[in-house]
Input
Amino acid sequence: MTHIMILFQIVWRLNCFQMRKYHPPVPKPVPKNNNSLTISVFDMGISDEEWERLQKALDWPGPDQQITQLDLSTSPVHSTFSIAGLKNNYKVGDNISVIITARDHNKNLKTYGGDFFKAKLFSSELKASVYGEVVDHRNGTYSVTLLLPWEGQAHVFVRLEHSSEVVQILKKYRDSSFPRSHYNGHFEGSGPNKTRIIEVVECNLKWGAEGSWRKGSCCCEYKDIKTGTVWQCERPKKLSCDKLVYHSRGSMENPLNPFEKQFFAKTLTNVPITGDTQIINILPNTTDIANGMA
Ligand SMILES: *[C@@H]1O[C@H](CO)[C@@H](O)[C@H](O)[C@H]1NC(C)=O
Ligand SMILES: *[C@@H]1O[C@H](CO)[C@@H](O)[C@H](O)[C@H]1NC(C)=O
Ligand SMILES: *[C@@H]1O[C@H](CO)[C@@H](O)[C@H](O)[C@H]1NC(C)=O
Ligand SMILES: *[C@@H]1O[C@H](CO)[C@@H](O)[C@H](O)[C@H]1NC(C)=O
Ligand SMILES: *[C@@H]1O[C@H](CO)[C@@H](O)[C@H](O)[C@H]1NC(C)=O
Output
């Protein structure tokens, strides 16, 4: 269950980061239309150039074809990191460069990018850490520049959050309109002889022009005045649509098929990778001290 929650958090996170760039033709500014769910470049008040720049900044490479074999995906066991030109001592304010090499389960170097690595410098003594930006060279290697902001010792830690194959799967479902989570609508009203009738039916957000509703007798619709979004509930058998009292969270949907599920195994996602674990010694910035005493 928690795993599914995390999956959807990531789906939404990617949503925020990458917007709608994955449909093969690069999105062009859309003329204003009457579908309230579509936000056009016009609505956002940005120029075409700005849109292009954002698309470029949000670009996330990945496999150029559908993945059919698990062993060709990035392996956290065989992927490694190293610190370029590791020295005995550094000064506060210096940078170190970390190179990550992604390999598949057959130990072959990956030929495309898109892996989601996180790299940080940390000190368990100081309970401090700092993350660096991971640059994807799109050839199976990644580089990270880490600032050394404190005096003392530090270690580098790199984790594979998700292989590029998992990111591809997440993108696929992000762009599709399967019902991600379900809600229950609670209806209450009076029946004959002063009895109370309570009915609980399934509800969901109306998705797309047609709506996502496929089962049961359709529908009661409710529009959120503030956001303009429309909710649909299966029509209750005895009560009318205006007898909706409240709604509650129902189940979450896991759209992954058995093949795809393997890529999300605990041993493959959110796993530290091996690499240079040497202690990094960071000395005070003597320039600073010299200046201070001068
Ligand atoms: C609104 O959308 C419908 C269906 O896509 C279309 O036929 C209609 O012309 C649109 N109206 C406006 C004002 O754009
Ligand atoms: C050390 O401190 C001086 C003065 O604040 C600064 O100019 C210099 O860039 C610092 N060195 C490093 C490596 O950060
Ligand atoms: C460390 O990296 C930052 C950002 O890339 C850069 O601004 C800074 O000058 C670098 N510091 C040193 C000492 O190279
Ligand atoms: C990957 O690309 C980087 C940056 O272009 C380059 O420095 C590196 O040599 C390449 N590595 C391989 C294995 O092709
Ligand atoms: C309503 O109550 C009356 C008297 O108690 C009873 O005869 C009748 O069957 C009830 N009707 C329903 C629909 O339950």
Summary: The CA atoms of residues 116 and 162 lie 5 Å apart. The two ends are 61 Å apart (CA to CA). The chain has six helices and 16 strands. The chain has a mean pLDDT of 82.
